[in-house]
Amino acid sequence: MNMKERIAARVAKEFLEGDIINLGIGIPTFIPNYLPEGIQVFLHSENGILGVGHTPEGDKVDPNIVNAGKKSVTVNEGASFFDSVNSFAMIRGGHIDVAVLGALEVNAKGQIANWAVPGKPVLGVGGAMDLIEGSQKVFVTTTHMTKNGKPKIVNENKYPLTSHRSIDMIVTDKAVFHVRDETLFLTEIAPESSLEEVRLLTDASFQVSENIKTF
């Protein structure tokens, strides 16, 4: 299991029976392969699918069935297809239990930036703004550091905020943070990391929970 898969597997442990879950692009797309046994959840893709299945392989790939990131997916028995208008009505109407998103930055209040980089062209905002505002819970999956070795969890965002709402949980390759009352709480650390390393690589201030676990 590589780093991105481990992050996805950790987030999947948070899902509850019957949850309707929207998966963003990037790391969240690994989640269908790590759903916990014994519970049934329903994966939503904002391009108009409810009932996304695991990642297809070989001759199971159908180029006409893709997620919002244009990656091939399978669909489970009973899946439904609809247009973007109805998909966003589900999101904006509060019918998504959990949204799992990527992020460029997360600040000390748990507010994320994931839609624009100043000075660089972007293809579009996508559904992140709607998902943060409309979903019951929002989880963020991201590497702890940028490709240039800079912290992604920062005191203040230098990129435009996606929403002023604080998300609920951050899972990186180094740690797990829960967000409560606009405060970050470190709850878990990766086996190969340490509290000292997390402090060194995290620009934002955070509280340390009493019983730190590994994941």
UniProtKB/TrEMBL annotation:
Gene3D superfamilies: Glutaconate Coenzyme A-transferase. PROSITE patterns: COA_TRANSF_2. InterPro entries: 3-oxoacid_CoA-transf_B, CoA_trans_fam_I, CoA_transf_AS, NagB/RpiA_transferase-like. Keywords: Transferase. Belongs to the 3-oxoacid CoA-transferase subunit B family. This is 3-oxoacid CoA-transferase subunit B. It comes from Virgibacillus byunsanensis.
